[in-house]
Amino acid sequence: MQENEIINRVTSSSLITFDLEEYYQPGERVLIDIKDQLYEGLILKEKDFRTYIKNTDWSVYQNKLVAIHCSTDAIIPTWAFMLVAIALKPHAKEIEFGTLEQLEEKLYDRILSKINWEQYRNEKVVVKGCSKVPVPASAYVKTVAYLQPVASSLMFGEACSTVPLYKNQNK
Fold first, then answer.
1. Which residue intervals of 91-159 are DSSP H helices?
2. Where are the domains of the chain?
3. Which of 153, 149, 159, 167 minimizes the C-alpha distance to 123?
4. Please, what sign has the CA dihedral across residues 42, 48, 51, 55?
5. Helix, strand or coil, per DSSP, at residue 16
6. Confidence tier at 130 by pLDDT (50, 70, 90)
7. Is the distance from CB of 153 to CB of 168 less than 8 angstroms?
8. What order of strands is seen across the sheet that includes strand 65-69?
9. How far apart are CA 24 and CA 128, in angstroms?
10. In a 10 Å sphere around its CB, with 0-12 CB exposed, 13-18 middle and 19+ buried, how is residue 5 labelled?
11. Of residues 150, 153, 166, the one with CA closest to residue 118
12. Helix, strand, coil fractions of the chain, as percent rounded to 5
């Protein structure tokens, strides 16, 4: 090795980067807000709602990720959300109850639950912090919950600049 040679310690380190961006489910996210179907913004009339269900072109939701929600404080019967889900089922790629943020959380929860976390056993893992796609904070929390029992250490950020989170004292 030459005296002035620059060594890239990041590439030669044993750190493994876990990038939540890789688990982002592509597709357009859409919110259906039932508040628009309430009489005077307060009451859901079954007959009118069933007419809305029947007359809506649900094909506009083809292959979309759809969240069903009501943004007002009105009491909406559960069957109303169920009717919307039934109408969406032949078209939408995913259907969830809640806001767009809750939809994103559920999408990440589903994919994270399918990962073989054993592959990170006794490894030094950096959970990548920057992302070009929206990653909810809940996905980072869930990731740590899965990694902590298996990894020897956890960090957050980039391999060149990390924030230490956890180190297993037994390893």
1. 100-112, 137-147
2. 15-25+115-167, 29-92
3. 153
4. negative
5. strand
6. confident
7. yes
8. 29-33, 65-69, 94-97
9. 13
10. exposed
11. 150
12. 35, 20, 40
**Residue 55 and residue 64: Cα distance in Å, rounded?**
19
Contact status, residue 70 vs residue 108, Cβ threshold 8 Å:
no
> Which residue reads 């259907």 in tokens?
95
Instruction: Tell me which H or E stretch contains 162.
Output: strand 161-167
Q: What is the pTM of this model?
A: 0.84
Residue owning tokens 């060149």: 160
Instruction: Say if residues 57 and 23 touch (Cβ distance below 8 Å).
Output: no
Helix H, strand E, coil C: the string for 36-88 is: HHCECCCECCHHHHHHHHHHCCHHHHCCCEEEEECCCCCCCCHHHHHHHHHHH
SS3 122: coil
Is the pLDDT assigned to residue 171 strictly greater than 60?
Answer: no
Residue type, position 83, single letter: L
CA distances to 90, 111, 138, 170 from 149, in Å: 40, 19, 18, 12
What's the CA gap between 58 and 85, in Å, rounded? Answer: 10
Q: Provide the pLDDT for residue 9.
A: 45
**Residue recorded with tokens 């005296």:** 3
